[in-house]
UniProtKB/TrEMBL annotation:
Record InterPro entries: Beta-lactam-related (IPR001466), Beta-lactam/transpept-like (IPR012338), Beta-lactamase/esterase (IPR052907)
Source organism of the structure: Actinomadura gamaensis
Stretches that traverse the bilayer: none
Protein known as: Serine hydrolase domain-containing protein
Pfam annotation, one family: Beta-lactamase
Source organism, top-level taxon: Bacteria
Length: 351
């Protein structure tokens, strides 16, 4: 009961809504939700309510690249320009695929208008023309928005499919996971819009160190244009159950619920340390693998607004927390509280 109690405490304390799922061996041992899907607290958060999980989406995008690498279609040590020739412009011929996945490519800043994020061709053309801010691989700076386009265009060049379509066909579909990058209109009624932190309004933007989506406002993330677009670093929609299910593949050696997406070696490759040091953008120490943050023997990532996924392969465990209630990042420990509650709940059990 530790996780339900912890979620209940957040809702009792003023959060609008949220959900937590804990999966072990690819199956749910905890799957709870509560509160409301709207700021006015008139629409209950239901079992199939979905929410923008912001940068938790990066773990889904990384999985797409890892699947292609495991199939031999993508060389993570190859230059990005091998697959995307135009990318070699402005001194980027030495940027490797693994640099993009580990935030060391030197392209951390989105320099265009928000509206351009909704146009894949324009967004990727802008990044192809951009010069790196440092020697690729020598430093890290969180690629909050750019990482998704960079990985996604490589996936598109190899497969002929958009990142969202590849994810739907090769990952979410086989797993029957309710997670989408590029949300169709028929699912709008299930969305719990993001609620800004108390004392803030929808013009609240991520611009301070440590935030995930620099310069983008809450109202942008709540727009129809954002939902329809494929912004593979930040525009994934799902719930705690679907996040935990997909990432159970990584917790369980490449397979979940009888569906094998990649080999154990291909799965373990994600945890190979690519960078360990000060992140120039976040202003704090970071360890990066291939698409995942490394935290001891636990791996994962969080999103602007509080959502979090953490993976512990030693226990074949995934904890996912999603919420529509933002808090100021410096004050937000909710995801870690849910993780600690998950560990507490599993202690002494047979799980």
């Amino acid at each position: 009961m530790a996780v339900p109690m912890a979620l209940g405490a957040l809702l009792d304390g003023g959060d609008v809504g949220g959900a937590v799922a804990v999966f072990v061996d690819g199956e749910p041992v905890v799957d709870v939700w509560g509160g409301f899907a709207d700021a006015a607290r008139g629409v209950p958060w239901e079992r199939d309510t979905i929410v923008n999980v912001w940068s938790v989406t990066k773990t889904m995008t990384a999985l797409c690249a890892l699947v292609l690498a495991d199939r031999g279609e993508l060389d993570l040590a190859a230059p990005v320009a091998r697959y995307w020739p135009e990318f070699a412009a402005a001194g980027k011929e030495k940027v490797l695929v693994r640099h993009v996945l580990s935030h060391t490519a030197g392209l951390p800043d989105w320099e265009g208008p928000v509206d351009e994020l909704y146009d894949w061709t324009s967004a990727t053309a802008r990044l192809a023309a951009q010069a790196p801010q440092w020697e690729p691989g020598d430093a890290a700076g969180y690629h909050s928005i750019t990482q998704g386009f960079l990985v996604g265009e490589v996936v598109r060049r190899i497969t002929g499919r958009s990142l969202g379509q590849f994810f739907a066909d090769e990952i979410a579909g086989p797993l029957n996971a309710d997670f989408q990058i590029g949300l169709p209109a028929e699912d709008d009624h299930r969305v719990a819009p993001t609620v800004p932190p108390p004392t803030k309004d929808e013009d609240y933007a991520a611009s301070a160190p440590g935030t995930s989506v620099a310069g983008i406002r809450v109202r942008d993330g709540n727009s129809v244009a954002w939902r329809r677009a494929q912004i593979p670093a930040a525009s994934g929609f799902g719930n705690a159950r679907s996040v935990a299910l997909v990432q159970s593949v990584m917790a369980c050696g490449g397979a979940a619920r009888g569906v094998r997406l990649l080999s154990r070696a291909g799965c373990d490759r994600a945890w190979e340390e690519q960078f360990n040091g000060e992140d120039r953008l976040l202003g704090r120490h970071a360890r990066y693998g291939l698409g995942y943050g490394l935290f001891g023997t636990t791996y994962g990532w969080g999103g602007w607004g509080g959502s979090l996924v953490m993976i512990e392969p030693d226990r074949r465990l995934v904890m996912a927390y999603v919420t529509n209630q933002m808090r100021e990042p410096s004050d937000d420990t909710r995801g870690l509280e849910m993780l600690m509650a998950a560990y507490e709940g599993l202690q002494g059990s047979n799980v």
